[in-house]
Amino acid sequence: MRPRSLRALLGLACAAAWTGGCAPRGPGMVTPTIGDRYFVAGYHPYWAGDAWTGYPWDALHQLYFFEIEADAEGALSEPHRWPGAWSGLLERARDADVAVVPTVSQHDADAFEALFADPARVGRLTDEVLSLLAATPGLGGVHLDFEVFRAVEPAARDGYTAFVARLERRIRELYPSMSLSLFALAYDDDDAYDERTLAELADYLVVQGYDLHHANDERAGPLAALDGWGRLNWRSVVERYVSFGVPARRIVIAVPLYGYEWPVTQDRLGAPTRGEAVTIPLAPASGVVPELPRARARAAEHGVQLDPESRIPFYAYHDSSGWRQGWFDDVESLRAKYDFVRELGLGGIAIFPLAYGDGLVWDDLRRAFSRPRD
Predict the structure, then answer these.
(1) DSSP code for 16
(2) Residue in 359, 358, 339 with CA at minimum distance from that of residue 349
(3) Residues 184, 207: Cα–Cα separation, whole Å
(4) Mean pLDDT of all residues in the chain?
(5) Cα angle vertex 21, ends 17, 24, to 5°?
(6) Which domains does the chain have, with CATH numbers?
(7) What digits encode the pLDDT tens for the residues 142-200?
(8) What is the CA angle 157-158-159, rounded to 5?
């Protein structure tokens, strides 16, 4: 039976956190809200270079450096020049009183299984993450982004949970003011994660709010609809996490500043795709991913349409290869997302990636989250 309402569920989840129903974190917990303010974070990807010089530092609480990659052996084998090449970013963040948080990542299912099914490798990864935190004083914590999109062996599923538990315990002992946050998939249809336990261990979850239609999808559609499109919308995703007993204020939702342009078979909403999409960043500076088309410019060229169900903009045009359809979030649809966060009392947002925004986006961001929580 469908719950009475998502707002009612959110209230129950928050109440459970204070009555023992959600196994709330201990006194060392770092909440994702700043007093009565909403939490605002953003990802700086290594490929964006010095785009950080144009970020809205006055609107941010944390900056996630993306990414430091873990391999199957438990080593942090690809740091993308962290921290040496990023001294300017670290200094700018300190000046703005924004905590920098490195993202430790792995996006390969085979490596995930090899790593987390082996306790010795898990121990090595734990030690490496702790050494990472020790090597750069003043960090705000660590953000884990381990993404698996297929079933894994139970030993690996349990091993990842054990890793998070072990890391959480050690961070509390060594760095009690630091946060431990986890990126959480919108849907885990293959049951690769124990989300209920992970939600209890983390200070907060950054829940995937993008790629609900992904680059290799069978049909075109919005990446981050608030409603509609079956379950491919924020409301259904948040409802899923609330059903696990996650308090609303510990849900931070990831907001995309990019879209996809797919080759499609015809000019209609949800048209079947003919191949992989091209990423269309919203409005980055000219030196950031210059090889990619800009969503805002593309829409101005071909004409903006609005999906009546999701209220997400898209455009369509025909070229020598056939029809193409691009979907993205603009300032207006982003504004609706900020309202959604306030409506449901979520912890805040995490923008991916910050380098794809511009002054119009930053002005709206400041207006949306400069006010106290409702």
Answers:
(1) H
(2) 339
(3) 5
(4) 92
(5) 45
(6) 6-21+32-258+330-369 (3.20.20.80), 262-327 (no CATH)
(7) 999 999 999 999 999 999 999 999 999 999 999 999 999 999 999 999 999 999 999 99
(8) 90
Does residue 125 contact residue 74 with C-beta atoms inside 8 Å?
yes
Residue in the structure block whose two tokens are 């009555």: 19
What one-character DSSP code corresponds to residue 343?
H
The two structure tokens encoding residue 229: 């499109």
Record the tokens describing residue 2, joined without a space.
């469908």
Q: What is the per-residue burial (b if ≥16 Cβ within 10 Å, else e) of 251-260?
A: bbbbbbbbbb
H or E, element range at 182: strand 179-184
pLDDT, position 371: 72
* Tally of residues, the chain: 374
User: 295 and 280 in contact (C-beta within 8 Å)?
Assistant: yes
Q: Which amino acid is at 296?
A: R
What's the pTM value of the predicted model, to 2 decimals? 0.91
Below-70 pLDDT ranges, the chain? 1-31, 33-35, 374
* CB neighbourhood size of 210 (10 A): 21
Determine how many CB atoms are found less than 10 A away from the CB of residue 160. 25
